[in-house]
Amino acid sequence: MHIDDFGGRMKNYENAFRHYLPGRMPVVIRIDGCHFHTFTKGMDKPFDEPLISVFWETCKYLAQNIMGCKLVYHQSDEISILLTNYDKLTTASWFENNLQKIVSVAASLTTAKFNEEIRAVYPDRPLATFDARAWVLPQDEVTNYFLWRQMDATKNSISMVSQAHFPHRELQGLDGSALQDKLFKEKGINWNNLPAWQKRGACILKREVLKGTAVRRKWDVDLNTPVFSQDRDYINRFVYLDRE
Which residue ranges does the record assign to the tRNAHis guanylyltransferase catalytic domain (predicted)? Predict the structure, then answer.
């Protein structure tokens, strides 16, 4: 058997499972920490600020290294990334929208950068790992996706703050509103007064910053990320080019 024929046959098996996302549509990558309940054992509850800072540095790194990135959203151990590939007629997609490449490289970048950063603050932690998934969305659904994740962040926040102040048995059967009432009445904690990033996560986006006399654009954390249902254009401006 000729080596080229043999190699071609092996490539055919590989290529049968090579999938591509449709072009010129918004792409969302969601990256999740694996077994982070165990990984974060012993850290400050409900919000470990060194851990959050590590996530934000990781988000900035991803934004800088993923082609077409427009916005990164972080909450809990989850990172959502918005990519566009239709800015111009000649705009290319990251890895030509090869799905296996997108998810494997995104998870690898996250794992590598996160572990590099976490060693500086928690040198004895075990290796953290992340998984990733990616898909396309209609333009009209992009903000709804981020709203969905923000709603999950809010639910998680109320739950985490409650769990930090009460035993599990006292929280069973209580919804978000009841948990907030319990926090306020019994602990004097008004959940609404928490910083925005603790209540609903934070976005990382490019901003103009002044360095000396020069204005430059850099990836930065928006500590006052709004409620997306109240300010839909916060996300939409990255999706619809005429809103830039």
Answer: 9-138
Q: What pTM value is reported for the model? A: 0.94
Name the nearest CA neighbour of 20 among 106, 107, 93, 104: 93
E strand segments, 23-143: 27-33, 69-75, 78-83, 130-136
Please state, in angstroms and rounded to a whole number, the distance separating the CA atoms of residues 223 and 106.
24
CA 161 to chain centre: 21
For helices 139-165 and 176-187, the axis angle rounded to 10 degrees is: 40
Give the residue from 33, 15, 31 showing the smallest Cα distance to 103: 31
**SS3 state of residue 112:** helix
Distance (Å) of CA 149 to CA 39, 63, 71, 87, 228: 22, 19, 14, 25, 10
- Say how many C-beta atoms besides its own lie within 10 A of residue 240's C-beta: 15
When pLDDT is cut at 50, 70 and 90, the band that residue 2 belongs to is: low
- In tens, the pLDDT along 85-124 reads 999 999 999 999 999 999 999 999 999 999 999 999 999 9
163-190 burial, b at 16+ Cβ within 10 Å, e below that, comes to eebbeeeeeeebeeeebbebbeeeeebe
Q: What is the mean pLDDT of residues 63-74?
A: 98
Q: By the 8 A CB rule, do 133 and 145 touch?
A: no
Q: Which whole number is the average pLDDT over 45-72?
A: 98
Q: Can you tell me the distance from the alpha carbon of 32 to that of 128, in angstroms, rounded to the nearest whole number? A: 11
Q: What's the maximum distance between 2 C-alpha atoms anywhere in the chain?
A: 79
